[in-house]
Design brief:
heterodimer, A: mainly alpha, Four Helix Bundle (Hemerythrin (Met), subunit A), 2 domains, 6 helices, about 70% helix, B: mainly alpha, Arc Repressor Mutant, subunit A, 10 helices, about 75% helix
């Protein structure tokens, strides 16, 4: 009778070990795709299908080269900054959370400026990322506590939307952590980044 | 909410930031690298059409890509819509990526365990989960209950703990 090899002895690894293996595989695949995908060609194909030319990039760079990697990271940061600016607009619900979101945006701006001008050390980059993570966590903590208050439904809905955004931003930040680490040639666990300093 | 703000961001930046992770997402659904690249490109074509008019975010991309992949599987007359896909050789980047994945023992084993070892629903839930979506978000996007999502995630993890046991030991 044939049995699956993993049934023999019912050996199992822990859930943490599975998570580590999957994370390693995902990182490998991300690195491979980063090397082989030609985004300029892909974009040209899309724009051509609609009879348009892709907009010129600010800095011409070879796909997969250092410049394009920095550009890709900066583009992602800019996208996060835009989202945070929207969420931190005055007049919305939970001004204290908005304040943290605004601070997170400021750190992202610092990070992007430093990467663009090439005068940022790895330590500074990871410190800024740590600060952003900390501010997002603080914003989420405040929103969570305000959700328990007896507030009018439209205000509660606004708070819920902001929580949704901070959760989405935290996910995006994890991907950004990895991109920045790759940029500096690190492969460490992003959670090992230095503690935040305000 | 993020989608509304993303709509104001340059499409090029969105494409650069999300393309790789979308291709990887489709690979974890069961596609080979070439098909995943095709599906991702088709998804971005749709995103381009809908740019500035629709809610576009990471979830939107994944939902469209997932539907594209299901349609692709159905078109390939598969018995079930999420069965592992036959290899394609018409995408240069996909071929290079597939070859590179073959060289990475752990990555190859993890992909095999996910694609051939997990039932379609569990694979689908895990693809979303590993891309950072919460159970609540996955439930909303897949039209399932949170309990069902959690159950599928737990079962998938149980399966992977067994099927990856040999990799975990060798990898140490």
């Amino acid at each position: 009778m044939s049995r699956r090899p993993w049934r023999m002895g019912a050996t199992r690894i822990t859930a943490d070990e599975v998570t580590t293996l999957v994370a390693r595989a995902r990182d490998d695949i991300a690195g491979i795709l980063n090397d082989v995908l030609d985004n300029e060609a892909g974009l040209a194909q899309i724009y051509a299908a609609y009879g348009q030319q892709p907009p010129p990039k600010t800095a011409a760079a070879a796909p997969g080269g250092e410049d394009s990697q920095v550009g890709a990271v900066c583009d992602r940061i800019a996208m996060l900054e835009t989202a945070l600016a929207q969420a931190a607009k005055p007049g919305g619900p939970s001004m204290r959370a908005a304040m943290y979101l605004e601070m997170a945006r400021g750190f992202l701006f610092e990070l992007r400026s430093g990467l663009t001008s090439r005068d940022l050390s790895a330590g500074d980059a990871f410190r800024l990322l740590g600060n952003v993570r900390h501010d997002l966590q603080e914003a989420d903590r405040m929103l969570r506590s305000e959700q328990r208050l007896p507030l009018p439904p439209p205000v509660l809905a606004g708070i819920g939307e902001k929580r949704e955004l901070t959760s989405e931003m935290t996910g995006q930040l994890a991907a950004l952590d990895k991109q920045v680490m790759r940029l500096f040639g690190h492969s460490d666990d992003p959670t090992a980044a230095p503690a935040p300093h305000h | 909410m993020l989608s509304e703000t993303v709509a104001n961001v340059d499409f090029v930046a969105f494409y650069d930031a999300e393309r790789g992770s979308l291709v990887r997402f489709v690979m974890f659904l069961g596609a080979d690298a070439g098909t995943a690249e095709d599906i991702a490109q088709t998804t971005f074509m749709r995103a381009f059409e809908a740019w500035n008019t629709s809610r576009l975010n990471r979830a939107w991309l994944r939902k469209v890509a997932q539907n594209e992949y299901f349609m692709h599987c159905r078109a390939a007359a598969r018995e079930t819509s999420l069965d592992a896909d036959p290899r394609r050789a018409d995408r240069l980047a996909g071929v290079s990526a597939a070859a590179a994945v073959e060289q990475q023992a752990v990555t190859r084993e993890v992909l095999a365990a996910v694609i051939t070892g997990l039932p379609p629903k569990q694979r689908q839930v895990m693809a979303w989960h590993w891309d950072g979506f919460s159970d609540v978000e996955i439930a909303a996007e897949l039209g399932d209950s949170v309990v069902a999502v959690r159950k599928n995630r737990n079962r998938a993890m149980k399966n992977l703990r067994q099927s990856l046991a040999h990799v975990g030991k060798e990898g140490k």
